[in-house]
Structures are given as structure tokens and as C-alpha cells.
Amino acid sequence: MIRVAIDGPAGVGKSSTSRALARHFGFAYLDTGAMYRASAWWCLNRGIDLDAPELDERLITETVGEFFTDGHADITVDPDDPKVLADGRDISDEIRSAQVSSHVSKVSGIIPVRHILIAAQRAYIAREAAADSFSQGRGIVAEGRDITTVVEPDAEVRVLLTAREEVRQARRSGQAAQGVGADDIAKRDRADSQVTSFMTAADGVITLDNSDLTFEQTLEQLIHLVDEAVEEQEYREYAANLEGYELDDEDRELIAGDYDEHDEEARGQRVGVIAVVGRPNVGKSTLVNRILGRRAAVVEDTPGVTRDRVSYDAEWAGTDFKLVDTGGWEADVEGIASAIASQAQIAVQLSDAVILVVDGQVGMTDTDERIVGMLRSAGKPVTLAVNKVDDAQSEYLTAEFWKLGLGEPHGISAMHGRGVGDLLDAAIDSLESADQTSGFLTPAHLRRVALVGRPNVGKSSLLNQLAHAERSVVNDLAGTTRDPVDEIIALDGQDWLFIDTAGIKRRQHKLSGAEYYSSLRTQAAIERAELALVLFDASQPIADQDLKVMSQAVDAGRAIVLVFNKWDLMDDFSRQRLERLWNTEFDRVTWAERVNLSAKTGWHTNRLTRAMRTALDSWDKRIPTGKLNAFLGRVQAAHPHPLRGGKQPRILFATQASTRPPRFVIFATGFLEHGYRRYLERQLREEFGFEGSPIQISVKIREKRRR
To answer: Residue 646: how many CB atoms within 10 A of its CB?
Structure first.
């Protein structure tokens, strides 16, 4: 049984809130304040003068004792129809009269009277533990004076509900306007405070100030407190099943149920943006990796490895900034090379400052000069880096680049790090003199979504469609994307961080060069993401390579949405074929959300947001321990584990060890076969949902402790 005790001064809404709370959980409701009012009413009706200069406290005490111990009083505990009866007559309205309200404090201020009522209140509360009580043993909400400290100091939930004096007086005045007797709050507080403390919470009592809360908000917070108490009580009940079994330290940590919520920054910091540009194969990505201090960008001794503009969070000498790697810029090119050059130009336009990288070993070229012309028209401050100046003897290589008119050329070796610090000092100085800071560090709170699939299924096309911009290079040539491309996109009023990845090839051990490193970075992007949008080309037969990509995301424990692209190219026969495949090839992920769309035209892309939110909600979902064990108890009773070797394994206790993805640990008396685990997973999904999220179930076999 759950006991909820709510105390507080007059005018905070204890009665209405407590009744609503009891109604929500199917609990009984006890208004202890009504018991004091009924006592005052009984005394007045017995002819006792409560306005006398000196009250006859002994007579009042005997009269109140007679009322409650001789069967004259009856308090009903139905929150929908709470009543106070005197000799079978309903006096619920009469005890709210102005006459009773003005005298109740005189009766309640008599200590022996309080003792009588406290004993009566405890009796009503204890009665609800019985199975044949109003609540059938579920619990009771009791509100009124001393309830959290004297009457029920061991209640599972103890709350001091309070509000500012002017707010409470306004609420009382509102009640008076509705025909309910109202009193002066300050006067009532002074009278009551002589015999009880209700303005400050005792140890272990939760204070809830509802001065600025609506009724619904107050109720919501109380419901949350009761939910936690119910879970804690159920947890202790089911954890008791493990008493007498051998447990190790890891078991005890799991049983303790400590749960870490995910606490992340709410928003990104505004910073400057530095774009790294240059013609192909001058070492731009090598310089980016050197600045970042890790191998983030794909590097190969072949022109054109980088194709998209790729942004990274970076820091130098205490200054945070956004660093943008670009593909090689060339003039008068066609096809994919033209698209790459366009992305580099867009990067310059969106940046605040630029690092132009040239090749000191090759010398100044016509393309370098044309890039400078493009940069001058963009009007951005430029820092010139002459790469491949590996030692002091090679510094003479920088001399001819003075002709570009960009100021001092900085001789560096991106491969070895030589001179990069001085280059960054100059670049940061130019950034500080820029007109604005147009970038943001990637906000930690954004939900991270990886676009994965085999090459040429339309990942970059979908990114561009969602962003409403040509964000990634798109070409009919398979494998256009090499580096993971991060893009913050607003969908249905929410910002998402999308990560466009390179297509995953079938046999990674046979890859080489840029394709090999792209594959590694794609796997890293999946690990960094929370949700994987797994794309399939619906117009082509499903291949083993498609299923391998899908399994890679599932094995990484990420939330999943299956996206069948190019659906507009499908005829009726092809659609029927795919539906047949769904029940065979996709049997491992029948729980995944599925969206059919066209990235090229935008058809049905608006359905993605709902599927993504559903999958991530499932990925974050946590089932209370009590509810989980009650459910598994029903499942086990209906379909127990098959007998093996004359023994039948039995589930003792289960807990959800973590989320993202949901992982359940089951303590059992013996090995649970994989078929039974799959059955448990299906039942968990039917009961709790988990659409779009993998579920992990592990079993710990424990034996009775030897005496």
C-alpha cells in the first residue's frame, strides 16, 4: 500500500489536489481537516459555547471523543464523493459554513482533541491496507494538519504544499464567491501555528510551492512523486526474490537500480568559421587533421579525395571555431569536379575567414591565381599557407607566393606539424577582425542521425532535400561521398544533426585507399549517431550488401528507420515483391519504422520526422522495475520455460540496466534458451512498444547460497 501525506496552510488547494491525485491512482481519500470541522460542528450542535472567554477544554475533549468513539461519526473515503456523516446524516456542507470556519481553530487548538483525531486518522489510513477496503489495498491520500509529521511520519510520500499568503487569500476569496465559507488566511495561520508547524517542511518532507503553478501542473508533480514511490515499493518487493542467492558486486550494482540520465548542453556556442581551400592535392585535409589533432578527414595521395565541404569543431589557444574542409577548387571543369568546386565556393561564402593552402614543392600555378581572384571577390580575410615546407632549408619556397598579394606566406608542413601553430595564430587574428561570427559549435543536445546505405542509394540526395539546399555533392557516379558530412537541419520545429556517410562496400578487407578510410569513418559515424536512417534503393533488388549495412547499424545498438528511396520508380509488381521480402529478408528488424519516399522529388519525406521521433523515444525508453517484473511474472506464468533435463529455469528478478538502446538483465535459476529470449523480446515489444529500437537481453544464472 502507498500512503500519501499532504500538509500545508489553508488556501493551497490541498483538498482538490488530493482528491484528484487519489482519483488518478484509484486510492482512498481522507480529508483530516473535515474531521476537525466536524468536531467543531458537533460541539456547537451539543450546545457548547465556543465563544466563551475561557473554553471548557475537558468538556470539548469528551464531546469530541464521544463523537468518534461511540459511532456517531463516519468519514467516507471515496475521492469522487467524500462525505462526513453524523448519526447517518450528511453534514458535509454544514461543516463548511462560516460559523464552523470561525470556530474550528479553537477546537483543533486543544491538544487532547488532536490526540483523539490523530488516533482516528491512523485507524482510517490503516484500514486501507486490507484487500476488501475501498482502494483494495492500493493506497490512500490523506491531507491535513500534522499528517506528514505526527500522523504518518513513515508515509511513502510526504509533501508540504504551500503558496504565498496573498495567493492563498485570493484563492479563499474565490471560494467565498462560490458560496463556500472563507476565513482570513493570516488569522487562521496564527491560530493554527500555536499547535502545529505547517509553514516549513520537516526532514524527509518535500516542499511544493504552487504559487505560480496551475492546478494541472501541481497535480502532475504529485503524480510523479507517487509514481516514484510505487516503483520503489514494487522494486523492493521483486528484489526480495533474490534473497538467499549468490550475488557478486556487479549484481548488487544492477539491483541497486542507479540510473544515469543523459545531461547534455542545451545549445551551441556562436563561433567564427575558417574555411580551408586550395586546388586539389595540396594537403588541405592533412592540415585539417593536424589542426584537429586526429584523423578526421580522409587523406590519400590522390587528387580529389575530398568532395563535400565538411565542418568540424576546433580550438586553438583558447579560441573555439568551426573548421571547414573543402574539395579541391578547379576552374573550367565539368561533372563531379565542377560540383566539388561549387561546394568549395559555397564554403568560402559561408565562412568568416579563409586559409588558402598552396603547394610549395610545385610552386605557384594559374589555378592558385584564379582562386585568389575568387577569394578577393568574396571579400573574406585570407591567411596563406605554403604546404610541404618540411624544414628551414626549404623556407625559400615561400618567397614566390608573395606575388599573390595576400600578405606574408606561412611556410608549413601539414604532415609533420611544422609552422602550423604560427599559421593558426595568424588565422585566428584574421578571424577576430572579421565582420561577424557566422558559425555555431555543434550543440550537444541535438539528436544525431546517420544516413547509411550502400553506394548510390540516394543518401546525399535525401540530405539535400531535407536541407532544401545543395549541401552534398550528388552525382550518378557511385561513391561520391567520402567524408561524413554534418549538417544541422530543422524539421517540424526541431533541429537535427544529420551525418551523410560514404556508402559501405561489401568486403571491407578488399578496400584500399580513400574507400577504405571512408568505410572506417562511416562506421565511426554510426557509432557517433543515435539514429541510423538505413537507405535502400527500392527500384533495385535487395542485395546482401544492403542487409550488411542494416546489420551494421543494428549491431551498433542504434535506433533504426528503414528508408526505401526511389519509391516513385516502383510498379505494382515491384512493390508486391518488396512486401514479400519484408517477411523474409527483414525478419530481424520487423520492429523497425519503415518509410517509403523519393529523395529526388521530396515525396513522403515529411513522414520521416514522426518515424525518427518514435524510434528515438523507444531508444530512450525506460520501464520501471516493478512494472517490468510484474509483466514478466505474468508472461512466465502463462508460458513457462520448457523443461530441460528435468529442470525448469525460473526468472527471479529483472531490471533495465540502461537505455540507448534498452538493455534488460534477467536473473534466473538456469539458462534461458535463445528461443525463449526471442519470445520474451516479442512480448516486451507487444507490451511496451520499442518501435524502431533494438532490445538487448542478457541473463545471469544464479544459484542458491550454500549454508
So the answer is: 5
In angstroms, the CA 214 to CA 163 distance is: 12
> For residue 280, what is the DSSP state?
T
The backbone torsions φ and ψ at residue 451, rounded to the nearest 5 degrees and listed phi first, read -90, 110
| Secondary structure of residue 653 in the 3-state scheme | strand
Residue 440 has pLDDT above 80, yes or no: no
Residue pair 69/123 in contact by the 8 Å Cβ criterion:
no
Mean pLDDT value across residues 168-197: 57
Residue 680 pLDDT: 97
- Distance of CA 694 to CAs 219, 388, 520, Å? 34, 48, 23
Q: What are 640's three cell numbers?
A: 513457462
Residue carrying C-alpha cell 579525395 = 305
Per DSSP, which regions of 435-591 are E strands?
439-440, 447-452, 485-491, 494-500, 531-537, 559-565
Residue 169 has pLDDT above 80, yes or no: yes
Which secondary structure element, helix H or strand E, spans residue 6, and what is its range?
A: strand 2-7
Q: Which three cell numbers stand for residue 382?
A: 585570407
Which cell numbers in the block locate residue 362?
A: 610545385
Read off the pLDDT of each residue in 319-338 and give the average, rounded to a whole number: 68
- Rounded to 5 degrees, what angle do the CA atoms 128, 81, 145 make? 60
From the list 512, 503, 442, 508, the residue with the least C-alpha distance to 477 is 503
Please report where in the chains the cell 525478419 appears, as a residue: 587
Of residues 170 and 158, more confidence is placed in: 158
What is the dihedral sign for C-alpha 189, 195, 199, 205? Answer: negative
Using omega within 30 degrees of 0 as the cis cutoff, is the peptide bond preceding 642 cis?
no
Mean pLDDT estimate for the chain = 84
Say which residues have a Cβ less than 8 Å from residue 583's Cβ, sequence separation at least 6.
590
- Give, in degrees to the nearest 5, the angle at Cα 643 between 640 and 648: 65
CB atoms closer than 10 angstroms to residue 446: 20
**Which position has the grid cell 488530493?**
18
pLDDT at 111 over 80: yes
Q: How far is it, in rounded angstroms, from Cα 138 to Cα 26?
A: 7
DSSP reduced 3-state for 359:
strand
CA angle 52, 53, 55 (to 5 degrees): 60
Q: Give residue-wise pLDDT tens across range 423-436.
A: 999 999 988 777 55
Return the SS3 of 306. Answer: coil
CA distance 408 to 425: 13
Q: What share of the chain is helix, strand, coil (3-state, %, to 5)?
A: 40, 20, 40
pTM above 0.70, yes or no: no
Rounded Cα–Cα distance for residues 550 and 670 (Å): 33
Q: Residue 228 and residue 110: Cα distance in Å, rounded?
A: 37
- Residues 309, 484: Cα–Cα separation, whole Å: 10
Instruction: Give the per-residue SS3 of 25-74.
Output: HCCEEEEHHHHHHHHHHHHHHCCCCCCCCCCCHHHHHHHHHHHHHCCCEE
Contacts of 604 (CB under 8 A, 6+ apart): 567, 595, 596, 597, 598
